[in-house]
Design a protein that fits this description.
TIM Barrel; globular
Length: 241
């Protein structure tokens, strides 16, 4: 990542440059340091579905920062407390899931900004940022229906599509072709609005395809998937299969 942290990510996204990160579901500062040491621009620490505990965040976010990446946290929910706690414990930004429209997104942004620009509570415990990155996960039909209004929310740094949950919400589970049309539309509209956009991927080839389509928030790999795949391949080689 190099120097600059949050400011560098914002500047690169503003210039239309893709930034690449790793998604982490595994706990521990050592794990986080290894992931950040790959050269990733950011590491997303998953509190919603991962094994990481909230109490680990001060050490884990510090490890990511020292290894040269920006620590972001996918929050448990869009609830005010769930958004603010990671920021108090060292996160430099949040990805907030399950938002349902522009008004909901405005509430999320306000929860990340101190008064008078928002209603974030003072009392940060460890590290973090005064102006953290605020990203929302686009994964509901309701949010998609208000996409243009969502993209116009002041203070929103980007939208990140969760394709599996979005497909389910739209009734498109298993309909790859129709979902791809939706994703292409989201990418096009976000770029036109000048808002950084990403689509969740589990491995590099999928991430590269999203980047080629215009995504600039690029998740190159998920630690759990990558570890399982890499170890299975080494076992295959060792067994002569």
């Amino acid at each position: 990542m190099g120097p600059g942290g949050v400011g560098a990510l914002r500047a690169r996204w503003a210039a239309g440059e893709a930034c690449h990160g790793i998604w982490s579901q595994l706990p521990g500062a050592v794990t986080a340091e290894l992931l950040a040491g790959t050269g990733a621009d950011f590491v997303v620490l998953d509190l919603q579905h991962g094994a990481l505990a909230e109490a680990e965040l001060p050490g884990v976010t510090a490890a990511v920062t020292l290894a040269g990446a920006v620590p972001l946290v996918r929050t448990r929910s869009a609830h005010f407390t769930d958004v603010g706690r990671p920021l108090d414990l060292g996160a430099h930004g949040v990805l907030v899931p399950t938002v349902f429209g522009a008004d909901h997104v405005r509430e999320v942004v306000a929860a990340c900004r101190y008064a008078p620009r928002g209603n974030r509570s003072a009392g940060r415990l460890s590290g973090g940022a005064d102006e953290p990155l605020v990203l929302v996960v686009l994964e509901t039909a309701e949010a998609l229906a208000e996409l243009d209004a969502v993209l116009a929310v002041d203070g929103l740094d980007g939208v990140y599509v969760g394709p599996v949950d979005l497909a389910a919400s739209l009734g498109l589970a298993g309909d790859v072709e129709r979902l791809q049309e939706v994703l292409s539309s989201v990418l096009t509209r976000a770029r036109a609005a000048g808002v950084p956009v990403g689509v969740h991927a589990f491995e590099g080839a999928g991430a590269a395809a999203h980047a080629a389509a215009g995504a600039t928030i690029v998740t190159a790999a998920m630690d759990t998937t990558a570890l399982r795949t890499a170890l299975a391949e080494q076992l295959r080689l060792a067994r002569g299969a």
